[in-house]
């Protein structure tokens, strides 16, 4: 790793022009209106986890197209109505096991850990439980980045972001959750999903966005050789006339455009040696974020970012914001 991107002084001022389609808002309104036509049908089934002081529920709800999406709901026992974190997962991972997510209830918050459809099938640490029954009508590179990428309506992340928005409705429906104190959170892909959800879902009151993926796509593919962004490069290097269609589709999913619509308080993090999500892509979104914001900078870290240090900052941030304790 090396300090390969812009100097920190320039990163703090980096606010790139956004490639935003004229019908961006209409596209997402149509998408979410269509999803709202499916009954959310949240099912919270008690799960016998080897934990004390935490109620665990194996949760299922209807995501995009009415498809069943799995999640874990963890609530501190006997705490009354509490704030809730809706947590999204990094690339290739699934919801894992309840024991992976106990830090939030230990701090007095509920957490809804949302599976990412079609992922987690090859992750030995965080296996998933949710399939994706929809595919594209063209070839794709290995991975998820190019699934349906020639058409915004068919693109994989249209389904993922819709699932994420509906997951917040699921959290708000839980009897132990205070619907006025819901935050979204995630690292890498999860950070990108949280960033989009905070802009699309009015029930979100705060966003914890760590080293976000799915942000400033064009710059990312131009300055890093790392995957998953390289999936897009592989695809365009094979389908040599696809560039215009690919970037048109990605413009509907770019974190820069969601950040410009972010109005809630947001705590970002960035690592200056991050070869997977280059720091300029993170600062590009952060500097466009329209609401109150803070960012934690880790100069000597890669994509692992701040690790437990950042989680500690997040807990303190939410404790103050949501008046916990």
TrEMBL record:
Entry coiled-coil feature ranges: none
Record Gene3D superfamilies: alpha/beta hydrolase
Residue intervals of the Acetyl xylan esterase domain: 1-320
A Pfam cross-reference name: AXE1
Protein's name in the database: Acetylxylan esterase
């Amino acid at each position: 790793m090396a300090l390969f991107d812009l100097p920190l002084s320039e990163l703090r001022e980096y606010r790139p022009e956004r490639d935003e389609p004229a019908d961006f808002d209409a596209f997402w309104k149509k998408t979410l209106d269509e999803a709202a036509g499916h009954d959310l049908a949240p099912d919270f089934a008690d799960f016998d986890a080897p934990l004390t002081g935490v109620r665990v529920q194996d949760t299922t709800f209807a995501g995009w197209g009415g498809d069943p999406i799995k999640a874990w709901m963890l609530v501190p026992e006997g705490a009354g109505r509490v704030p809730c974190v809706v947590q999204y997962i990094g690339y290739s991972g699934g919801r894992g096991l309840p024991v992976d997510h106990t830090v939030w209830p230990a701090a007095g918050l509920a957490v809804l850990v949302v599976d990412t459809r079609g992922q987690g099938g090859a992750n030995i640490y965080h296996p998933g439980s949710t399939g994706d029954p929809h595919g594209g009508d063209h070839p794709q590179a290995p991975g998820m980045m190019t699934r349906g990428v020639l058409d915004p309506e068919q693109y994989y992340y249209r389904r993922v972001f819709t699932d994420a928005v509906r997951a917040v409705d699921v959290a708000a429906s839980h009897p132990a959750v205070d619907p006025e104190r819901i935050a979204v959170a995630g690292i890498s892909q999860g950070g990108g999903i949280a960033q989009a959800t905070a802009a699309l879902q009015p029930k979100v009151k705060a966003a914890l966005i760590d080293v976000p993926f799915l942000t400033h796509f064009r710059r990312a593919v131009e300055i890093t050789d790392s995957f998953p962004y390289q999936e897009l490069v592989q695809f365009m290097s094979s389908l040599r006339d696809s560039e215009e269609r690919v970037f048109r589709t990605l413009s509907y999913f770019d974190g820069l455009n969601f950040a410009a619509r972010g109005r809630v308080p947001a705590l970002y993090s960035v690592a200056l040696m991050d070869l997977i999500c280059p720091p300029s892509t993170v600062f590009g979104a952060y500097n466009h974020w329209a609401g109150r914001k803070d960012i934690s900078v880790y100069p000597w870290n890669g994509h692992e970012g701040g690790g437990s240090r950042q989680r500690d900052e997040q807990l303190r941030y939410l404790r103050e914001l949501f008046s916990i304790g």
